[in-house]
Write a structure and sequence with these properties.
This protein is mainly alpha-helical and 284 residues long. The chain folds into 2 domains: 205 residues, no CATH class; 56 residues. The protein is 79% helix and 0% strand.
Amino acid sequence: MTISWFQAALLGLFACLSSMPGLGGTSIGNYTLGRPLVGGLVSGLILGDIQLGIICGVAMQLVYIALVTPGGTVSADVRAVSYIGIPLAMVAIKSQGIAVDSADAANLAKSMGTLVGTVGTVLFYGTATMNLLWQHVGWKAIEKGNFKKIYQVDFLYPWVSHIVFSFIPTLIMCKLGADAVTALKTALPMDGIPMKTLFTVGSLLPCVGIAILLKQIVEKATDFIPFFVGFTLAASLGLNLVSCAVISLIFAVLFYEIQMAKNIRAQATTSAAAFDDDDDEEDI
């Protein structure tokens, strides 16, 4: 598999769109197009192998399933993961002759995505830093009463930042990086220590993403029960993602009903206590 300049340009365009957190009220840009799960589908469509693209996207999404950017602080840039890491991982899997649906393919994709995601933080902060220039331009325009220029500051000038730090790096890295990945086929044989190391590290990376997710949502020991049930069912019965989603929906409904019952009981207790207080005041 090779990546042409036109395909690399399309990937760069989607990298620009996914780096815009305000695109569609944050529902289209960074929080949708920028996710590896969606980026895998887009990369698969562009490179002509949807199955491989989705497999790489799913594998990388596990690693970054709980990634958030509090206060603009990022540990990895999913934009780079989606539109640089996934295409390069697809090229690497094809060039190494790895079966698309194998565990080795998923592990290699995770390793590639993590490497590129760390490098992508430079692109993220570069975009944010360059956008500060347009902010100063906007303040000067306001001081001069030129309010029409604010539209340019909001909708036109940021594209320069995204082209410099999203489009061009994605274009170059996807095009030239694909050739480099293909050349590594002879330098790094499948049975060598470097490739085995990549597969081993890649198989452990989803644990990091799931651990971060658990840290955010688990408040007490009993919160682990739905996860243990889900993993047990998936491992023992071989359930697919649709079946797991249905089971998780059942758990969600059960927990919702239990919480509503608790709220009703608490309200009833509060009302009864208030009624008793009123009777005491009347007796006095």
